[in-house]
């Protein structure tokens, strides 16, 4: 648009030649913006002044500033050319910022997201971020008005919705999308979503080869190992966590000796989403802060942790299991002592190691709780067929070692395509009829649990079985089971069973892995925590028998626990709580001891008259060690 310039006599009646008396017109007094002869164009204005852009293709190009009340021809350059692509904020209308694009001093195009509060509100912070990316900014006194931060804050641009983590997100219009580090999957207004992890080292995705080669050179060999199919199915199952009812985060731990192929299961699973960073699996050698950031990066996906023995923080690993499975990071404060937003995530984890939590507890002398053991489900990696993780091997390979070497070589050549195809159909299916999809998943998971457990199983067993069932459903969907319910065809090339998914490879392998875990876990009818407690009580009674005396014996023991009479251990209330329960709940502990036959008289206290108390009556708990039946 052609712009005009007012005559000097029209500007407050002042002579333009008299710089001293010049007074800039108010914005409402100017019908059209000034277009000076040097090719500058007005961009925006603030209380400090006005900003112009010069773009003529020479060294003078850049952003210029004119202070309010100063001759418009006296423009001062503040930086090279920089463009605001769009502004953004999250769905709650907070955490605002803007994305900028510029060319650095080497001619490379750079895009950068800047937070309004943390970056643009502090001019020195903006300078530091831009200079670090080789952007040229003019040296100006901090006392001078007009700054690059002020310019960027006042530039108008389209607004997009900000997402800080990968996984499911919903727009204000109600449509669902799935955010990956390099793309937003879903039809519609997905271009209006911007992903910014706010991390100095964001996750990247690298894709190689194509889907067909991945199917023919990698995926088709997975059914020779129940562990490979299970690990790969977990990749397809993690995005279902938000859709299935009553499921939390779960870790699966492939436990086995060195070179049995346990890491191969994780490497094969990684080919579904993309190439591994640096070609290597993440390990347990981390710290809690790094662990939380990694969980956030894996939201609605798979969290890989290789070689649990590589960590030099073995004592902390049991606590980390609770952190990962809880889906919530540690509460922290900002510099102004207000609460930071907690990091949250949903994920499935795949882990490997030559030892499990039980061995870690023995080595580092830490207590391992049943809740930790079921959240890190041990799956023996070696299936016992003589081929490591493989039940059988294809005829074209002489041994399992040759097969593993082949898979390792191919995984770097073909990866990163299967998950995109799967998610495109899953997102479309969720937007078409979300409730129908949720009901379908719940019914199939329930079908798996009913087929692999009995009513008398402990709730902890059924809880873990539900997670195995989720993995089975995810793998079956990706294989085109349920008469191609997902609508994406057979992505994996595995056997899908048609409408009878119990005949699918995904069901078979998930069932095999669940049974392997159950066999490793122990008695499914009782909680391991109960078994451990009973063992502890019996150990105290037998190993510390010298701290019990007969009713008619004088007391010669300084650390007396109680009395022993006719096969009964008689323990007073305070000693019972201190030496037997050791801080555990009185009510629940009594229930367990009664159920297992250790606590006599239905848990009620018994009246005795020991000689050591001078003939005084005292109430005690009576414990007996039950005799094992032949």
In a few lines, what is going on in this structure?
The chain has 630 residues and is an alpha/beta fold. The protein contains 19 helices and 21 strands.
List the helices and strands and how they pair.
Elements: E1 40-45, E2 49-54, E3 62-67, E4 76-79, E5 82-89, E6 97-103, E7 109-115, H1 116-120, H2 123-132, H3 148-154, E8 159-163, E9 167-170, E10 176-180, E11 183-185, E12 193-195, H4 211-217, H5 226-237, E13 250-255, H6 262-273, H7 288-297, E14 301-305, H8 317-326, E15 347-353, H9 357-364, H10 370-375, E16 376-380, H11 400-411, H12 418-432, H13 434-452, H14 459-478, H15 481-484, H16 505-521, H17 528-543, E17 548-549, E18 562-565, E19 568-572, H18 573-581, H19 586-595, E20 606-608, E21 618-623
Parallel strand pairs: 5-8, 8-12, 13-15, 13-16, 14-15, 17-18
Antiparallel strand pairs: 1-2, 2-3, 3-4, 5-6, 6-7, 9-10, 10-11, 18-19, 19-21, 20-21
Helix pairs in contact: 5-6, 5-14, 5-16, 6-11, 12-13, 13-14, 14-16
* Overall pLDDT level: 86
- Uncertain runs: 1-36
Rg estimate, integer Å: 34 Å
Structural class: alpha/beta
Task: Say what oligomer this is.
Answer: single chain
First and last CA, distance: 100 Å
Tally of DSSP helical segments: 19
Largest sheet: 5 strands, mixed
Q: Give the amount of beta strand, in percent.
A: 15-25%
Strand order of the largest sheet: 7-6-5-8-12
- Strand count: 21
């Amino acid at each position: 648009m052609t712009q005009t310039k007012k005559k000097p006599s029209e500007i407050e009646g002042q002579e333009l030649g008299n710089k001293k008396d010049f007074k800039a017109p108010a914005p409402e007094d100017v019908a059209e913006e000034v277009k000076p002869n040097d090719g500058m164009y007005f961009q925006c204005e603030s209380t400090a002044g006005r900003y112009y852009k010069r773009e003529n293709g020479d060294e003078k190009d850049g952003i210029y500033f004119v202070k309010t009340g100063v001759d418009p021809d006296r423009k001062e350059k503040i930086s090279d050319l920089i463009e605001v692509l769009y502004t953004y904020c999250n769905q709650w209308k907070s955490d605002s910022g803007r994305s900028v694009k510029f060319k650095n001093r080497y001619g490379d195009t750079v895009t950068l997201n800047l937070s309004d509060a943390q970056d643009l509100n502090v001019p020195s912070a903006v300078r530091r971020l831009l200079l670090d990316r080789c952007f040229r900014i003019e040296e100006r006194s901090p006392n001078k008005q007009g700054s690059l931060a002020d310019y960027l804050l006042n530039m108008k641009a389209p607004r997009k919705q900000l997402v800080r983590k990968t996984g499911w997100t919903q727009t204000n219009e109600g449509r669902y999308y799935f955010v990956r580090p390099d793309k937003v999957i879903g039809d519609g207004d997905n271009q209006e979503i911007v992903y910014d992890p706010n991390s100095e080292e964001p996750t990247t995705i690298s894709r190689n080869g194509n889907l067909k080669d991945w199917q023919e050179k990698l995926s088709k060999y997975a059914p020779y190992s129940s562990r490979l199919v299970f690990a790969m199915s977990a990749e397809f199952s993690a995005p279902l966590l938000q859709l299935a009812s009553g499921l939390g985060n779960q870790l699966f731990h492939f436990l086995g000796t060195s070179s049995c192929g346990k890491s191969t299961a994780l490497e094969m699973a990684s080919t579904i989403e993309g190439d591994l960073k640096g070609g290597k699996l993440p390990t347990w050698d981390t710290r809690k802060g790094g662990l939380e950031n990694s969980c956030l990066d894996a939201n609605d996906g798979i969290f890989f942790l290789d070689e649990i023995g590589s960590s030099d923080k073995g004592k902390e690993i049991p606590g980390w299991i609770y952190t990962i499975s809880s889906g919530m990071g540690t509460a922290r404060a900002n510099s102004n002592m207000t609460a930071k937003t907690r990091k949250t995530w949903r994920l499935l984890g795949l882990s490997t190691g030559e030892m499990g939590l039980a061995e870690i507890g023995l080595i580092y002398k830490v207590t391992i709780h049943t809740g930790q053991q079921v959240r890190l489900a041990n799956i023996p990696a070696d299936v016992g067929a003589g081929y490591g993780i493989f039940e059988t091997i294809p005829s074209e390979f002489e041994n399992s070692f040759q097969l593993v070497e082949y898979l390792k070589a191919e995984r770097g050549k073909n990866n990163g395509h299967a998950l995109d195809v799967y998610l495109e159909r899953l997102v479309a299916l969720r937007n078409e009829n979300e409730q129908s999809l949720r009901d379908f998943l719940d019914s199939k998971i329930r079908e798996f649990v009913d087929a692999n457990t009995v009513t008398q199983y402990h709730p902890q067993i059924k809880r873990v079985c539900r997670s195995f069932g989720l993995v089975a459903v995810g793998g079956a969907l990706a294989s085109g089971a349920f008469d191609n319910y997902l609508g994406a065809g057979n992505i994996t090339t595995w056997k899908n069973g048609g409408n009878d998914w119990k005949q699918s490879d995904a069901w078979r392998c998930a069932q095999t892995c669940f049974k392997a875990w159950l066999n490793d876990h122990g008695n499914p009818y009782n909680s391991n925590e109960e078994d451990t407690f009973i063992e502890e009580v019996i150990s105290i009674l037998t190993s510390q028998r010298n701290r019990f005396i007969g009713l008619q014996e004088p007391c010669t023991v300084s650390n007396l626990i109680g009395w022993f009479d006719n096969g009964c251990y008689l323990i007073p209330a305070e000693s019972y709580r201190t030496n037997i329960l050791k801080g555990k709940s009185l009510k629940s502990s009594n229930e367990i001891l009664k159920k297992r036959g250790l606590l006599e008289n239905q848990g009620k206290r018994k009246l005795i008259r020991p000689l050591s108390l001078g003939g005084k009556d005292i109430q005690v708990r009576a414990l007996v060690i039950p005799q094992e039946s032949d």
